[in-house]
Amino acid sequence: MKIISLKLQNIRSYLDETIIFPNGSILLSGDIGSGKSTILFAIEFALFGMARGEGNALLRQGKHEGSVELTFAIDDKEYIVMRKLKRAASVTQDAGYIITDGVKKEGTAVELKSDILDILNYPKELLTKKNLVYRYTVYTPQESMKQILLDNKEFRIDTLRKVFGIDKYRLIRENCDLIAKELRDQVKILVAQTEQLPDKKLQVEHLQKEISAHDGRILEMQPKLVLAKQQFEEGQIAFIKMQQEVQALQIKKQQYSAVDNQLVGKTEMFTRQGLESEQLVEEEKKLQVELEGKEVIDVASQIEEKMKESQVLEGQRFTLVKHINEATVKKDQALQVQQKINTLAHCPTCEQNVSAEYKQKIQDREGVIIIDQDKNITKFQADQQALMAQVEGKHKEMELLRVQEKEVTLLQHKKQQLENIKLKKEQLVVGREQIKQEIGALNTQKLALQKELKLHKDSEEEFKVLQVKVDGLRQVYHQQELQVASAQKEKEGVERMIAVIREDVVKMESYLVQIDASREKEEWLRKMFVNLMSQIEKHVMAKLYHEFNALFQDWFNVLIEDQALTVALDDEFGVEITQNGYQVSLEHMSGGEKTSCALAYRLSLNQIINDLIGEVKTKDVLILDEPTDGFSSEQLDKIRDVLNELALEQIIIVSHERKIESFVDHVIQVRKEEHVSSVS
After folding, report:
1. At 127, is the secondary structure helix, strand, or coil?
2. Alpha-carbon separation of residue 375 from 338, 364, 378, 379 (angstroms)
3. Rounded distance, CA 366 to CA 358, Å?
4. 42: pLDDT strictly greater than 70
5. Class for domain 2-151+621-679, per CATH?
6. pLDDT-wise least confident of 13-27, 29-43, 583-597, 616-630
7. CATH says 294-416 is which class?
8. CA angle (621 as vertex; 619, 624 as ends), nearest 5
9. What are the residue boundaries of the structural domains of the chain, listed by start?
10. Distance (Å, rounded) from C-alpha 273 to C-alpha 431?
11. Count of C-beta atoms within a 10 Å radius of residue 57
12. pTM of the model
């Protein structure tokens, strides 16, 4: 892994800053509190996100949003990861993204961490845990490394177990204890569930005897049931045969009743038609008397002729009315002219005075017109009165003809009625003859049915007696059937009880097998597997101890060249210090010696973890945070040897020591002015 660049926005003392990281050794130089460690925390946040409560320490005070964008490369493939922070009631992580080969993938904080673990080839179980692999192989705050040396041995051993990944053996032992306890509890439960096994087996024996007793009863009842069934079936056959005869007799009775009803109906119809025929004869005689000597004449043509004449007269009358109206109009117009000329003083056209002579002339002219029109009106009105008298005469003639037309119509109706009576008389004669023949046939059929009914008059009584007998046989058969069914049902109930108890017996016997198996498992886990895990853990820890101890001594000797001062690891991976043949406590050593121990421990742990995990992608990068705290000028020169010995692709050192600038490849200056950090 190679870190390429880091972009910070509103992160601690940074407002908007981009930091470029070249290859080789890099020194982040600056005064204490200038913002160097913030860069390291931001790199870790970009990769793995933040733990609960860390957001308040990362997001710049007074800002509501911030972000970190880290660009890094692995195996010549470039990645960009961006995470965001936002402030509400508290500071939380927002969704971010990862860009791989130009393809952007957005995700939540957890999804981004999962993708980063895949890219770095870190164990997946770190998804919900602290990033111990990263902390002890890439970046560890120097004070944290000193703390692991100074803390109690239980905390140190527990931390190293997690870092080395051998904490699983302790978890296995604890899980084995839980499983063994669960197996013991399971055995207790199964033992309690098998206590009734002997009683269950005894119950099965007693119930088998009950089944044998039921079988004996059923065997005794079977002959009676067979006999009752045979008698019932024979009676049923006779009953069905007799029932068919009775049903046939009922049909004959229905036929007799139907024939008798038809006979009564036909007789009544024959009588009714005879009376109707006599009535028709009387009506025929009466109509013949009424029509004697009377003829039908054509009155309709006379009425039509009178109507045409009346229409001509009406036309003439309308013409006279028109002439009267025209004469009246002319007379009224003349009267209007006379009235207007009397009141006219000046001519409306030429505006000259109208003379009395001219007015009289006009009065005379219009008077002649009025006299002529009065004569015309008198003449036309006299002609109109004469025409109206003629029209009224024509109407009276038509009324007389219409009365005569009604008499002719009535005469025609009576003639048609007479013809209908004759036709109906003929039809009645034919119909009565046919009814007479049908009555004869029905009488014959009725006599035949009477004979058949007389022959079977006792069948219905015999059927009733047989029905009572069959009902008795049915009841006897049903009782026998119920007795056998009851015994069979009792037997089946016992068989079901046996089946249930046998299921319990089989289940309890399987519990006995499970008890033996669980006891064997519990004993194997307790006596063999747990001891095996302990031995494996001790073997792994011993191997790691020897490798760790050798590396720790080598790195310490690189940092401090003092023959009188030696270091080693004790059994709990603590530091044993010997000076001039005497053991010395770490607390009593100088600041530079404490820092040398912590740095040697840190570098040894880095190599051990990288070798132990295998193909992690962060082996080529190392971040050292204030690794020279308390170093003398001579000890500072040893950092050059450390860098040469490590020979990594990229090493980032955070220090305020100016001397280190002389033996690193690149220097990034970090400054803070007015609470804002920047780099150059």
Report:
1. helix
2. 19, 17, 5, 6
3. 13
4. yes
5. alpha beta
6. 583-597
7. mainly alpha
8. 120
9. 2-151+621-679, 294-416
10. 8
11. 11
12. 0.52
